[in-house]
Amino acid sequence: MTTVLTPVTAPVARARPALVLAWVGLGLLALAAAWPALLATAAPDTVDPASALAPISPHHPFGTDQLGRDVYSRVVYGTRMSLLIGLGATTLAVTVGALLGVLAAAAGRAVDELFMRITDILLAFPGLLLALLVIAVLGPGAVNTTIALACAAVPGYVRLARGQALVVRRSGYVSAAVVMGRSRVGIFFGHVLPNALPPVLAFAAVDVGTALMASASLSFLGLGAQPPAPEWGSMLAEGRDYLDSAWGLTVFPGLVVTAAVIACYVVGADLRARFEGRGTGGR
Q: Which residues, other chains included, contact 54 with Cβ-Cβ below 8 Å and sequence gap of 6+?
C-alpha cells in the first residue's frame, strides 16, 4: 500500500536530509577541532617557498598560500580556534545573560527597571558594533574577540532569560513553594533558574552560528586571531590579495565558514523545535 505524505509530514521528511548533513558536518568539525592531525595532510605552519601559491593538486587539495603552507591543513587546524571563539563567546554570554536576566526578574521592580533600561540601550546598537567597541578597549586577539562577542550577545540573553523567569515566577509550583515557606534564594535556585534556562539554551544553539560568523568577520578585519595562527577569518584576509592567482586561499575557508554557520543553524533550529514540542525542525 502506498503511503501518501500529508501536508504536515511532508516538510519534515524533506528537512531530514538537511538535518542529517548538518549533524555530519558538525561531527567533522568536532573531529577536526579535537584531532586535527587525523584529517590534515601537513603541519599548518610548514613553510615551503618553492611551492608558494601552488594550484589544487592531490598533495595540496586546497592549494598553498603565499608562503607555501598547505591551505587544507590550515583550514583543518583553524577549526579548533574558530570553534573555541564561537562556543566560548556563546557560553559566556549565556552564563552572564541568564544570571542577570533571572536576577532582574527575581530581585524586584527597581532592579528590574534598571537592568531593562540598560539592556534596551545596549540592544539599540548592532551587536558587531558593540564588539568593535570592546575590542577597541581591550585590543585585538582571540581571547579579546571571545569577550567582545560575549558582551555583544549578553543583552539579548538578559531579556530572554528575564521573560522566561517572569513566566516561571507566576507558575503554580512557585506559588506552592512560597506557601510552603521556601526562602527566596531557595526558590530562585531551585525553581526559577532551572526552569528558565532551557529556552535560553535552545536559543543559544542557534546563536553559535552567529558567533562563528561574527568571529570570522572580526578576524578578517584584523581584530581577531592574529597571524600566523590558523583561523578561518584571518585566512580570508590573507588570501584576498591573491584572488586572481590563487582563489582557493579565500574560497575554501569561506565555504567552510558558510557550511559551519548553516550546520549550526539547522541543528540549533531542530533542537529549539524539539524543545517547543513542534517535532523535528531542521529548517
A: 60, 63, 64, 68
User: What is each CA distance from 85 to 145, 149, 164, 184, 235, in whole angstroms?
Assistant: 7, 9, 27, 36, 15
Q: pLDDT of 251-282, one tens digit each?
A: 999 999 999 999 999 988 888 787 766 544 44
Question: Model confidence over 51-110: pLDDT tens digits?
Answer: 888 888 888 889 888 888 999 999 999 999 999 999 999 999 999 998 888 888 877 788
How many structural domains is the chain composed of? Answer: 1
Q: Residue 277 has what pLDDT?
A: 64
Asked if the structure places residue 46 within a domain, the reply is no
Task: Map grid coordinates 577549526 to a residue.
Answer: 79
Residue 56 covered by a domain? no
Residue 199 covered by a domain: yes
* Owning domain of residue 143: 62-275
